[in-house]
């Protein structure tokens, strides 16, 4: 038999050989890895540089227990070389993610210009996590860096479907809260999108980008075979009277856990920041008062602090704030070492204000916190909890601040904020 | 001045080796001593009717090879050599050649035709030999038919050799007139008519203007259609070949002729001899190709339209076309499945049916189903096979929604036929059809797969059983398993294949060891299926894949140790080594990508590396390539630990980079350098002097295939990113090279799509190099070294932007470089970038671009630049 014409492939003969496929795959993988390496250098260099120091502490692996996370912060710090950061792999990636979440401070007094410079939205109750989609899979990581879910999603490169647009290795990173009841990720911020870092962008831009980009992907569609969990955006309001009221009282599809306030001009910043704030009362949260190891609300306030070598107990702020101290006997009795986290009880009679700062005085050791706790409480959390039991900041105070805040005082108000 | 070469030419064809060698040696000497005289003697030998035809034929052949070669650089050298000969010699040679066209000896005429076309191919583009076409056309009016025939043949070869734009329209008109007249039914010599028809085939590309003129087009089409009715089978075949060429070149001009062409082709398919019938079917396949392309353009999201409108010829012809094609399926030959490269009416018909299905989609299903239902259970194997073949052919094109219900019903029948049909041919086609079902109706692309957890086990049982069948059936069963597995590649941990991994591997390994595994490509198919199953393994099945590693290594070891092989055995062993290295590559990639198995896998790394280094002792290109790919995968998996293999591996890396002849190896090796950079990072530094030297040499060489050059530039970027500021010492060499390549590629005027694509690949490579270098120096104290290059980089982007021929990839890379410039050099270049208007325009333009990736690159670049300007 004569052979077929050059360009005509008999239908029974396979279209491409596996060798050709291996060759093409290898070339594609190489090209992807190149653009991956370059993008990684781009995004991490720019983000790590703007983030500053990053912890080297290996986080605990257990899942986060407590519902509220507006507290802790990292321990030992060293500078991270951005070029080295670009080549992070395996456990280093986990360590890196563990310190990348932006953590709001607790609102102990109302920031100026609340109505013009801030957004407000009801915080979904659930597990705060980073969701990373790349290379055909999606991974959510809790605050301590451990993995919550690994699943396919409609986020960019979030599932291995055949219609890939762009290098399959480019990352997208979302800041989310996983809400158990409806198994939905509520996206509260966008950190990276298709390999491009949004760290250096203002919240205003990030929220705009989040709203326009997420809807393009179908990530908000109901779950399907290649999209295991739904991603919903949270309705974000201008923090004027109407917005505040909507966030505070409005019906939402999830269980609320307080309100989050984001300064419009703030960049995404890892760790504690006063430019994002959390506030709660009993109307908008079931978890206003902190719970103990058993999940009960203790009769006296308890706080988790870190032991220093002079016996003082400090918060996880940078720099740490000393709130009191433990006696040597107690340290010896419990076999505590420097750097240990301890749970202590606050006793009204020994609390003092020194130069406007809280001093808890002599502290009563209650025990060690859950092993999953990696960080001590922050100063703002201790203060908020202290106030919550006595003279809480009420919704009326927030409303009053908006009403009484004529915009002419802008410049002066800004100065005040900059000191904080 | 002519030398006597007859005896040498005859001796060079002697059966006696010594005589032959001596003659070849002498010819070579003459050529080296006096090229013009040598060429002259050859041309007069060819022209001399008193010389034996054997010496004349060889003289023509040597002459032809002195004018043209396959490799581009050699082709150019030979053309230059010819052009630089003195005018008198060239004129004399050309005169001899034209004279030969009148020779009574047909072999001499035909050889001369080809040589004339080669000379024309060199001279016409340089506006030389302007009288050639005229003098040929004057031959046409000669009475002797053999001169007429040789002249038409020459015109045909010339049209094949030279690009249309070098012949002016007036000459084109005269050529076409002569050719079409020669084809006319009034031409009494069938030799002339055949030569004219074949010449028209080559001349069609010149007839753009004539095909837009209704009268001329009608005339050409009428003559071609008449020629399909000639009593000479060769003329009929040549005329149908013209119709096929017209269908792709002038698709949009065909509407008014389609009814006639349908009648002609369907008569030929049903009644004519096979070579003619095959061309008649090919006409419809070719129309399908055109319409599939046009409809693809319609669907593509960026353009949304096509230059050529779709006339839906296939859709209109469908009710008559499909029955005609179904009839062809019944014309199978007994042993066609054993013949690798075979082609007959049934195969062409099925292939065309498949293309029709892709063109019209759902509409074909109701036209084919009755044929399948009627024949699938007939006692005559031809009917069962044709029905199955028809079913398999229409599985791509129609929507899964339309096909799934039918397939659900047919699946059990197919499985039973594969297991029990008494005829091998039927089983072969059944296994192939199952493979097509898995390819198109199963996996991530389909909403609901026709394969379920329940029927998967039954399918696997039948497929594995069929792998013990005769080689051609077993090969198709392996192919079916390949596509079944492919559908589960994205499945994660819930693949229904999981419980069967052990059984599958066992059976596939058994197949590779079958005595008859080299028949029907069986061994290759088995390894390909094995690779695909490995690709879809997961955490759960990784341990089973791990057990495969020592088995494959042992086999590879045996091939490395085998000695004293005959050349036939050697060839088979090379094939096997290639397959085993390919398999290792896939396993390495997969095990390296599964967190849990990576460390266990690394235990084998030393042994695997050892084996692969031994494999490089083989001189076979495919084996080298496969081994190189496997090493690239190993390097990526091993990361910095790969450094310990570098001392031994380096020599082979260098060898690969030096392999200009088998340029795919060179290209793959350049890619592996990139893998090594990402794996070793700064540990690659000790080898960089050698690698960079070789890469720079490769770039300056005009012998290296051009397709390797863009990846070499990208590779500069990989190296710079890996070794950071240590790249400093290469800047002085690399930067000028990048600059001159950038200048060339920025100003390149692309005549055709292929050239445009290459130019864009080159630009992309250059931009990736710049990005890698800029990023490598980021936050180094030596950043300053790059500042002087910034204006040139910006200018490169400016010029490309002005030229407006960047594709999306280049645009993205260019935006990346703009961002990197700003990011690395900061305030040193901030104002420079800000003032570069086209950079600004490029970014603004890309911010509203269709492709979201381009849009986002633009956002990023803008952001980086803003920071640089404000910082």
UniProtKB/TrEMBL annotation, chain A:
It comes from the Eukaryota. Residues 28-39 have a biased composition (Basic and acidic residues). Residues 40-49 have a biased composition (Polar residues). It is found in: Cytoplasm; Nucleus. GO terms for biological process: snRNA import into nucleus. Pfam families: SPN1_m3Gcap_bd. InterPro entries: Snurportin-1, Snurportin1_C. GO terms for molecular function: RNA binding. Residues 28-85 are annotated as: Disordered. Keywords: Cytoplasm, Nucleus, RNA-binding, Transport. Its main location: cytoplasm. Belongs to the snurportin family. This is Snurportin-1. It comes from Carex littledalei. The lineage of its organism: Eukaryota, Viridiplantae, Streptophyta, Embryophyta, Tracheophyta.
UniProtKB/TrEMBL annotation, chain B:
The keyword Secreted does not apply. Keywords: Cytoplasm, Protein transport, Repeat, Transport. One of its GO terms (molecular function) is small GTPase binding. One of its GO terms (cellular component) is cytoplasm. The keyword NAD does not apply. It comes from the Eukaryota. It holds the Pfam family IBN_N. InterPro entries: ARM-like, ARM-type_fold, IMB1_TNPO1-like_TPR, Importin-beta_N, Importin_beta. It is found in: Cytoplasm. Belongs to the importin beta family. Importin beta-1 subfamily. It comes from Carex littledalei. This is Importin subunit beta-1-like protein.
């Amino acid at each position: 038999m004569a052979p077929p014409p050059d360009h005509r492939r008999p239908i029974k003969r396979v279209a491409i050989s596996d060798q050709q496929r291996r060759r093409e795959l290898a070339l594609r993988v190489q090209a992807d890895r190149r653009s991956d390496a370059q993008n990684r250098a781009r995004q991490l260099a720019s983000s790590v540089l703007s983030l500053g120091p990053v912890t080297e502490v290996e986080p605990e692996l257990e899942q986060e227990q407590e519902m509220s996370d507006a507290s802790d912060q990292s321990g030992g710090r060293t500078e991270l070389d951005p070029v080295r950061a670009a080549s992070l792999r395996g456990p280093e990636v986990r360590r890196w993610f563990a310190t990348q979440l932006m953590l709001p401070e607790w609102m102990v007094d109302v920031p100026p210009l609340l109505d013009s410079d801030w957004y407000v939205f009801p915080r979904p109750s659930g597990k705060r996590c980073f969701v990373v989609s790349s290379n055909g899979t999606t991974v959510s990581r809790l605050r301590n860096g451990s993995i919550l879910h690994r699943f396919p999603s409609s986020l960019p490169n979030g599932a291995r479907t055949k219609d890939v647009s762009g290098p399959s290795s480019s990352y997208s990173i979302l800041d989310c809260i996983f809400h158990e009841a409806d198994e939905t990720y509520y996206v509260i911020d966008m950190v990276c999108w298709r390999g491009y870092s949004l760290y250096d962008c203002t919240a205003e831009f990030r929220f705009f980008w989040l709203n326009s980009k997420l809807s393009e992907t179908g990530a908000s569609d109901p779950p399907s075979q290649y999209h295991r969990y739904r991603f919903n955006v949270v309705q974000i309001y201008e923090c004027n009277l109407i917005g505040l009221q909507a966030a505070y009282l409005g019906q939402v599809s999830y269980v609320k856990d307080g309100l989050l306030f984001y300064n419009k001009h703030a960049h995404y910043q890892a760790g504690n920041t006063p430019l994002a704030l959390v506030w709660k009362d009993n109307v908008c949260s079931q978890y206003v008062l902190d719970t103990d190891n058993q999940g009960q609300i203790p009769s006296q306030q308890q706080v988790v602090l870190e032991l220093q070598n002079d016996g003082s107990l400090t918060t996880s702020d940078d720099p740490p704030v000393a709130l009191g101290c433990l006696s040597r006997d107690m340290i010896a009795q419990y076999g505590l070492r420097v750097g240990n986290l301890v749970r202590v009880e606050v006793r009204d009679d020994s609390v003092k204000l020194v130069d406007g700062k809280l001093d808890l005085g002599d502290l009563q050791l209650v025990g060690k916190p859950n092993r999953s706790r990696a960080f001590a409480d922050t100063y703002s959390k201790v203060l908020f909890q202290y106030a919550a039991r006595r003279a809480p900041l009420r919704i009326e105070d927030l409303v009053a601040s908006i009403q009484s805040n004529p915009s002419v005082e802008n410049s002066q108000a800004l100065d005040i904020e900059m000191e904080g | 001045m002519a030398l006597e070469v007859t005896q040498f030419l005859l001796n060079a064809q002697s059966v006696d080796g010594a005589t032959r060698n001596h003659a070849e040696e002498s010819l070579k000497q003459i050529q080296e001593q006096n090229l013009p005289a040598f060429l002259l003697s050859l041309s007069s030998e060819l022209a001399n009717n008193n010389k034996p035809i054997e010496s004349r034929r060889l003289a023509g052949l040597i002459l032809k090879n002195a004018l043209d070669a396959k490799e581009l650089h050699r082709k150019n050298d030979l053309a230059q050599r010819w052009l630089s000969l003195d005018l008198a010699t060239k004129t004399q040679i050309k005169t001899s050649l034209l004279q030969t066209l009148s020779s009574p000896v047909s072999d001499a005429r035909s050889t001369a035709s080809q040589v004339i076309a080669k000379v024309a191919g060199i001279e016409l583009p340089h506006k030389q030999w302007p009288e050639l076409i005229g003098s040929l056309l004057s031959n046409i009016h000669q009475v002797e038919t053999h001169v007429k025939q040789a002249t038409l043949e020459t015109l045909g070869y010339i049209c094949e050799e030279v690009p249309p734009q070098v012949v002016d329209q007036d000459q084109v008109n005269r050529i076409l007139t002569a050719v079409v007249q020669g084809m006319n039914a009034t031409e009494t010599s069938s030799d002339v008519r055949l030569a004219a028809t074949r010449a028209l085939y080559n001349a069609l590309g010149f007839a753009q203007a004539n095909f837009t003129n209704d009268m001329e087009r009608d005339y050409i089409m009428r003559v071609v259609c008449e020629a399909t009715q000639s009593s000479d089978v060769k003329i009929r075949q040549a005329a149908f070949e013209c119709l096929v060429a017209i269908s792709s070149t002038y698709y949009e001009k065909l509407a008014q002729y389609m009814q006639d062409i349908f009648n002609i082709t369907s008569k030929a398919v049903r009644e004519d001899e096979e070579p003619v019938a095959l061309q008649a079917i090919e006409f419809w396949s070719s129309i399908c190709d055109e319409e599939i392309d046009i409809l693809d353009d319609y669907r593509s999201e960026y353009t949304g339209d096509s230059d050529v409108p779709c006339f839906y010829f296939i859709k209109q012809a469908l009710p008559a076309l499909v029955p005609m094609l179904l009839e062809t399926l019944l014309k199978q030959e007994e042993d066609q499945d054993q013949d690798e490269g075979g082609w007959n009416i049934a195969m062409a018909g099925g292939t065309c049916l498949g293309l029709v299905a892709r063109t019209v989609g759902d509409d074909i299903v109701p036209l084919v189903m009755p044929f399948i239902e009627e024949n699938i259970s007939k006692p005559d194997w031809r009917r069962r096979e044709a029905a199955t073949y028809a079913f398999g052919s229409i599985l791509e094109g129609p929507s899964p929604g339309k096909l799934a219900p039918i397939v659900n019903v047919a699946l059990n029948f197919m499985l039973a036929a594969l297991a029990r049909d008494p005829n091998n041919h039927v089983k072969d086609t059944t296994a192939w059809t199952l493979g097509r079902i898995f390819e198109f109706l199963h996996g991530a692309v389909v909403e609901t797969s026709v394969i379920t957890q329940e029927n998967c086990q039954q399918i696997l049982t039948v497929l594995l059983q069929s792998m013990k069948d005769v080689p051609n059936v077993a090969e198709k069963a392996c192919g079916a398993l390949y596509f079944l597995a492919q559908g589960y590649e994205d499945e994660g941990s819930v693949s229904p294949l999981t419980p069967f991994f052990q059984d599958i591997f066992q059976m596939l390994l058994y197949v590779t060891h079958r005595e008859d595994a080299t028949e029907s490509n069986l061994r290759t198919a088995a390894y390909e299926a094995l690779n695909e199953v490995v690709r879809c393994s997961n955490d759960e099945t990784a341990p089973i894949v791990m057990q495969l590693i020592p088995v494959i290594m042992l086999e590879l070891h045996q091939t490395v140790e085998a000695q004293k092989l005959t050349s036939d055995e050697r060839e088979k062993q090379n094939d096997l080594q290639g397959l085993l290295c390919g398999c290792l590559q896939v396993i390495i990639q997969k095990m390296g990508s599964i967190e849990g198995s990576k460390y266990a896998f690394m235990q084998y790394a030393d042994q695997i590396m050892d084996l692969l280094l031994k494999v490089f002792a083989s001189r076979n290109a495919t084996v080298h390539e496969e081994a190189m790919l496997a090493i690239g995968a190993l390097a990526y998996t091993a990361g910095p630990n790969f450094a310990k293999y570098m001392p031994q591996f380096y020599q082979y890396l260098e060898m690969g980079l030096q392999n200009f002849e088998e340029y795919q190896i060179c290209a793959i090796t350049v890619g592996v350098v990139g893998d090594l950079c990402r794996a070793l990072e700064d540990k690659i530094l000790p080898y960089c002097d050698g690698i960079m030297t070789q890469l720079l040499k490769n770039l300056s060489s005009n012998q290296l295939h051009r397709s390797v050059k863009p990846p070499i530039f990208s590779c500069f970027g990989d190296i710079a990113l890996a070794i950071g500021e240590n790249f400093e010492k290469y800047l002085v060499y690399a930067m000028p090279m990048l600059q001159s390549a950038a200048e060339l590629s920025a100003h390149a005027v692309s005549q055709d799509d292929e050239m445009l694509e290459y130019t864009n690949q080159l630009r992309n490579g250059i931009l990736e190099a710049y990005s890698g270098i800029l990023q490598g120096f980021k936050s180094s104290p030596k950043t300053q070294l790059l500042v002087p290059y910034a204006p040139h980089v910006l200018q490169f982007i400016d010029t490309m932007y002005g030229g407006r021929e960047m594709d999306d990839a280049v645009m993205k890379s260019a935006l990346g470089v703009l961002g990197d410039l700003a990011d690395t050099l900061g305030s040193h270049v901030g104002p420079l970038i800000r003032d570069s208007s086209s950079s600004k325009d490029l970014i603004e333009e890309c911010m509203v671009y269709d492709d979201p990736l381009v849009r986002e690159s633009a956002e990023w670049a803008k952001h980086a630049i803003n920071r640089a300007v404000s910082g």
